[in-house]
């Protein structure tokens, strides 16, 4: 009755995901006696079906989780190093690796999902994949966001005649534009998932599926080998943590770039933001200045050593950055990579969170790298492959230049927050280099202005770009935009009030006193919450 989504709460289980059918898949595992770790893997697999433009078992990502049985935070990194076969010397700019076989990096997602469910879940892989298999075999009607993505990307992929026929066969049922309610069936993907359910992840990494993929990539000029696939191994890591307004926020450590998110919050903790007018010029000026400074530090120190990272997050260094925020002088600097971004950021990522009655809480962020990744759909498998080598830094002169075998820094930030040692929030978002920006903006709304979780996610946000440029959702008042321009921000309003370029956040909060779980999903995409 207030024109808003209702608060979704439960004591039994909660799934927040980028598509309602994927959230239902995770909830189904919880209802069948699974835990959060079973449910997160089922949600991930279902997202592969219902949002194939940004989800695939051939993508990569990371997870941050609270394991109730161990009373600790754990991080699983399933971003594999750049494969040994990658011919880095051939490339000098990002656009060389935008699409095609040479842009395909190693697939970490399937290994990561199986490691989480195998280590901490209780359901067999066949049960975990069953909802995704049913969705792929029986089909599902496309919702608004999916329609937009298919119809936007299909004309772009027509420019790649070696890729387009397989893409069209997999995703364009009538050979042309799709519409709301178009039924998308993916029998090849259903078969692939069924084979994985029967044979395990080695069907991809050491078996017949991997051989088929490697052979197809070779036919397109790719260099990936079975030895590359066999080398994929998820890694358990210790989380990186920082405090903000009484919460301890835990994210993956470098080579993940989530430290930018923590650095922004560390800067902002020196200011009484909650005393300011919400979404007014003083509030937004502080937040944007802190974000731009933190982005510049992340780019200058892309994969910091533990000692360097400790220095970056130290009180002394943070105070220097706060002084720069206070001085009022315009801040000009990069937000993306070492050299300016070439055109619009094409990243496509998804983030989803699950909590259960046992106290487990988990957030995963994973991606294909760009809309439909490399554009390579392997005939007969239903799999669209990533283009994560586009996110490698091959730019001449960059201090972060990537090579075969080197780590692949990743701008993801799945987070778990604790208060007094108890888990209270799982929160993540897609959005490429905007991920760490939009998470900081939402946390300020949630903690400084004490908004309910759903309202904090719905609050207007902005995307900062290289230089001084900022794009803001047009729900920010025009007079605020004008004042921010006067303060040196090259800020403009989008022509819409809600845009996926400001993320697509999914979150689950937990009340440690009652165990009540509250979910929130971002209306900037097809996000939805399902309670058990």
What is the compact description of this entry?
The chain is of the alpha+beta class. It contains 17 helices and 21 strands. The protein has helices at 20-31, 36-50, 109-120, 125-138, 144-157, 164-171, 187-199, 202-205, 208-219, 226-230, 259-268, 281-300, 306-312, 315-326, 435-448, 453-458, 478-486, and strands at residues 8-10, 13-17, 60-67, 72-78, 140-141, 183-184, 235-237, 240-244, 247-251, 349-356, 361-367, 377-378, 383-384, 415-419, 422-428, 462-464, 469-472, 490-493, 506-510, 517-521, 528-531.
Please specify the SSE layout and strand pairing.
Layout: E1 8-10, E2 13-17, H1 20-31, H2 36-50, E3 60-67, E4 72-78, H3 109-120, H4 125-138, E5 140-141, H5 144-157, H6 164-171, E6 183-184, H7 187-199, H8 202-205, H9 208-219, H10 226-230, E7 235-237, E8 240-244, E9 247-251, H11 259-268, H12 281-300, H13 306-312, H14 315-326, E10 349-356, E11 361-367, E12 377-378, E13 383-384, E14 415-419, E15 422-428, H15 435-448, H16 453-458, E16 462-464, E17 469-472, H17 478-486, E18 490-493, E19 506-510, E20 517-521, E21 528-531
Parallel strand pairs: 17-18
Antiparallel strand pairs: 1-20, 2-10, 2-21, 3-4, 3-11, 4-7, 5-6, 8-9, 9-14, 10-11, 12-13, 14-15, 15-19, 16-17, 19-20
Helix pairs in contact: 1-2, 1-4, 2-3, 2-4, 4-7, 11-12, 11-14, 11-15, 12-14
Protein name: Gamma-glutamyltranspeptidase
InterPro entries: GGT-like_enzyme, GGT_lsub, GGT_ssub_C, Ntn_hydrolases_N
Region (Disordered): 326-348
